[in-house]
Amino acid sequence: MAKEKSSDFKVEFGEPVGMIAAQSVGEPGTQMILRSFHFAGIESAIATSGLPRIVELVDAKKRPTTPLSTIYLDAKASRNIDDAEKVAAKINEVRMGTLVRRIIENFAKGTIKIALSRQELESEDMTPRQVADRLGKLLSLEVAVEGLVLTVKTHTKNLKEVRAVRVKIMRSVISGIEGAGKAIVQKNLKTGEFYIISAGSNIEGMMGIEGIDKSRIYTNDVFAIYRLFGIEAARNAIARELQLTLDEQKISVDLRHLLLIADAMTASGSVKGVGRHGLSGEKKSVFARAAYEETVKHLINAAAFGETDQMRGVTENILVGKQIPIGTGSVRLAIKKEDMSKVKP
Amino acid sequence: MQAEIIKNVKFGIISPEKAKRLSVVKLSIPDTYNEDGYPIDGGLLDQRLGVIDPGLVCKTCGARAKSCPGHFGHIELVRPVIHSEFSKILYMLLQSTCGECHRVLLTDDEIHGLQDKSKKIIALEVEDLTDAEIADNAAEVDEKKGGKSVLKKIRSAKKCPHCGAPQTKIKFSSPTYFYMGDKKLKPDEIRDMLTGINNEDLRILGIDPDSSRPEWLILTYLLVPPVNVRPSITLESGERSEDDLTHKLVDIMRINQRLAQNINAGAPQIIIDDLWELLQYHVTAYFNNETSGIPPARHRSGRALKTLAQRLKGKEGRFRYNLSGKRVNYSARTVISVDPYINLDEVGVPYDIASRLTVPFYVTAWNLDKAKELLARTEYPMILNLISGDGKRKRVIDINHDELLAAVKPGDILERQLVDGDIVLFNRQPSLHRMSIMAHRVRVLPGKTFRINFCVTSPYNADFDGDEMNLHVPQTLEAQVEAKYLLAVQHQVFSPRDGEAVITNNEDGITGMYFLTKDETRLNKDEASYILGIGGIYELPEPDKDGMYRGKDIFSLLLPPKLNFETKTAGGMVRIVNGKLVEGVITKETYGKGNNKLLIKIGMEYGDEVLKQFLFLSSKLADAYVTFAGVTVGVKEYTTNNEIEKAREELLQNTFRLIDEKISQYKNGKLEPLIGYTRRESLERRIIVDLNLAREKAGDVLIRHIDPQNSAMQMARAGSRGSIFQYEQMSMFLGQQATLSGGRIKRGYYTRRVLPHIYEGDVRPSARGFVQTNYESGLSPIDLFMHAVGSRGSEVYKALLTARSGYLYRRLSNALQDLYIEKDFSVRDTANNVVQTSYGGDGMEPVATQFAKMAEKDKK
Q1: Is A300 strand, coil or helix?
Q2: CB-CB neighbors (< 8 A) of B319 in chain A
Q3: Mean pLDDT comparison of A30-44, A202-216, B488-502, highest-scoring range
């Protein structure tokens, strides 16, 4: 039978599209390669890829293992490397920890001495004075400068408190946007456009920076997108990230399957993972949950709260040996009772 | 016998009243058999609890072993105990109610303000997630935030808002200890407190009081499951061995008896309390022997007892093993092997199997004659069993043959042996996608193995190195029709994953086609007739002027007459005009796995049946031609000449020089670090990129220097087997060996080096697992070691990945299995929530994408 019209390709009623989507992602899972040796670009070398990334996405992990943002620049900065670098410097997150070569606490005097690394300072284009000022402002403490050595006076001789200040110093953001990570200017070889990639996902903070194209900012952090743009955007982000990951592995999966997974994860209005604490754990059916994981817990809770299983899902009906209400099983044949008697074996 | 259809299942707690109704006997003797080996009345195997030995009659219902469902008994505990599995819920209840008036610790206004959703919060709290789990799942945290305040309010209440009584904090320690302030609460005290909670308040807390009153969880009246649930087994030595549950129940009864005696004898309170606690322990272990806070009860051998919870739990538990895992009859399993001469949708079934499997033949008034004719047969396709209208199955044997023949009537079912043309389901595990089970037509063949066409190996992911497959015979007409029209092989050619063909020609099927359709292939009449004859085509194409037949014309005979097709491949354009291949060579790119535009075209315009026939005939033809033409690969194909040697040497030197430069740059601190990486890591990444580049270049060198007639290269070009990468490994170098962590190997011998032959801290390619020798020349000892490390790593990794991806798959399918297309073409789950209003946004099947791409191209 030839297929000609587009209506020849409509999905049919009852089609178990969820299962097909799961198979389409699950089946090639074994073909995925974790250790990718053949990365050509730099971006792909940084981001988690392959199976771990897929797992991370469908689990709805709050933070990706390797957050990454792509920041496009406005007309001026995207054409000029110097302007682009200036924007990048504003974004680039520098924590005290990276600048410090050595740090010594003097508990007797309640001071902390910090030796800065000349090399790191140079690469971040900063002077010790700048670092000291910034640090002083952040901690509201007095910071003295002497060459490469900073001295912080803590006003306390309590061992614990001094140590706490030390930890705070190491974590403090000296320049850039907190959570933006290291930002580097890249050049699109095709269009010659400059853009920035950064190893963080605080796009909310980045959007406040002058010189960027807010409409094109992108991050691989689904939750960052969810918080900023809402659930619809998060849904698109999940599908897109899944597709990018699969494409990279040269596994072709129709976008429909990925959209369905994303839709299932977001249909409730918040992002839910597929596992025990997400979609599977929130199924209505007690049996379906019990047959999946944590059997006893679900049965006990069902008994205590007096739950009822309506036996509408797939698992429940398999358990009791009924036909599943999906696919050809969703079709019922209706016949009038009086007509039944007319039928002879 | 029509079983009842389960409409819904209500969960609840068995009340003492209900338990009394269920129980048929009070058990009082903590033992099983007497000296004569006879079950003791009032013992744990009392015959009123049901019978399991064949021949005996149940003393309660009078039925025999098979039809007696078993009956509950009970033990009356002299002191109440807590049902430990529910203690967290009891704790929640005690915390949220007043110690005096037992009302919920919320004012009436607050109760009114409660939403349905937040009622469940309290239930959620019981699940007690670890912090990590909460942090991992943001959605849950969000949901909990709404209700946490209510919960906090309840817990922090100092005074009861109803009676004004001050509240003492209830403390709970796993598994069954409750304290009010410093005072330990006894189960009977707890029961009194729970009884005081009124039904309305329970509803506020999300509990349905009709099915689960909390005080029912304090047990005095312990139900004992029937013997069917805990059958004893007789060992070969005649010794009886009891089920774990029976053992545990004996323990409970013993302590119960001792406790009773001590109470009657007026023993000191401390002894009674000790025994009471011991009773509680045994009951706890009886419900769940893995309860945290108690030592698991053990057998004499030291093995932990499997009690009620253990029976249900996990992969081998009742749910996943017995209830989800169905077993079937009418199935067969054996080794598979190839048969290129049977069609794609056929399966060769050995006679031994075909003669044992049966298909039902439903006798009606209209086919009675045919039924009799079948039943009268005494050899191969004959009737094995007759199932009469009342469901009794009789074996058809010589003795009752005539009798049955006379008795057969409409309504009976005859079980007929499997014959050619029957529809069967064929499956290979792991069943990862829907093409892992497909419907085939039976071909009964001699031999002991299932036979399948080579083209259908890929959807099953099967090979013939000893693989076994399963065959199932659908038993109802509905199932057979469904199999034929939905599961048949020809309907599964295109994968729903991406719309590409999964059933294609492979290996020789492609090599043969490549050789046959090459421009220079010309056959004389004898040869052409021979090849076509094998393919089952008995006409010849138009010969050339000199009486020779072009390979392309022979191939064209397979194509549908009016097919027009055009595609661009690596080997140039492929053009089919009016069913004739006029230009180009057929390779994997037009016809094999992954890139199969020709198959899509034929499938779209001519349908599944034509496509199947095209695949079948072309595979036969290709096999015939490849046999005829002869393709061979030996060491000769991979032997290199001086020219290649020189190029190889040069390539390696250049690469090493490049890397040495980077290393010295790094040492001078001039190497720009990559984003997110330290300088050392950046160097590492750069080296890896360079080494990969070297391998790519090696391929180019080979392509430039190798004779195009080299059969290994020919096969690589056809796409049937091997690629330039394999060639590189044979003739150039193996390249960088990977480790499990994804980087280059760096440790092994002491610190910072792999072998003692390498300098510490050496980062050059040769020191870190770059193998520069090849298979043809042999590996140097160090290279061999590096290669072995890589091989081991990939083996370990494979095992790891299958486990990981298997779990991902299980979770995905569990989460998504309920989604289906509703009549209005929206995607819904079985609870009727809409997930998508239109599948994929346009309601199209995924297969359509490929077809649509094709159609768009045609338009241009």
Answers
A1: helix
A2: 290-291, 295, 319
A3: B488-502
What is the overall mean pLDDT for chain B? 86
DSSP string for B487-505: IBGGGGSB-TTTS-BSS--
pLDDT of res. A339? 80
**Residue B235 contacts A, CB cutoff 8 Å:** no
Could you give the ipTM of this predicted complex?
0.86
What kind of fold does domain B508-629 have according to CATH? Enzyme I; Chain A, domain 2 (1.10.274)
- Tell me the chain A residues in contact with residue B675 when contact means C-beta distances shorter than 8 Å: 42, 46, 182-184, 197-199
pLDDT of residue A241: 93
Nearest by CB to B607, from A2, A19, A267: name it. A2
Query: Across the beta sheet with B73-82, what order do the strands follow?
Result: B25-26, B73-82, B218-224
Report which of A57, A59, A37, A12 is spatially closest to residue A221, judged by C-alpha positions. Answer: A57
Q: Is B606 in contact with A255 (Cβ distance < 8 A)?
A: no
Whole-number pLDDT of residue B489: 95
Q: What percent of chain B has pLDDT over 90?
A: 36
Domains of chain A: 13-65+220-266 (1.10.1790.20), 69-92+180-219 (3.30.70), 94-175 (3.30.1360.140), 283-330 (1.10.150.390)
Q: Kind of pairing, strands B437-445 and B423-427?
A: antiparallel
Displacement of CA A184 from its chain's centroid (Å): 20
- Domains of chain B, by residue range, sit at 85-216, 233-326, 364-416, 508-629, 635-781, 820-859
Cβ of A301 and B825 within 8 Å?
Answer: no
The verdict on pTM exceeding 0.90 is: no
Under a CB-based contact definition with an 8 Å cutoff, are residues B624 and B512 in contact? yes
Selection from A46-50, A198-202, A259-263, A308-312 with the highest mean pLDDT? A259-263
- Is pLDDT above 60 for B835? yes
CATH tag, B635-781: 1.10.132.30
Are A10 and B843 in contact (CB < 8 Å)?
yes
Helices B138-156 and B116-126 pack at an angle, to 10 degrees, of: 90
Which pLDDT does position B152 carry in this prediction? Answer: 63
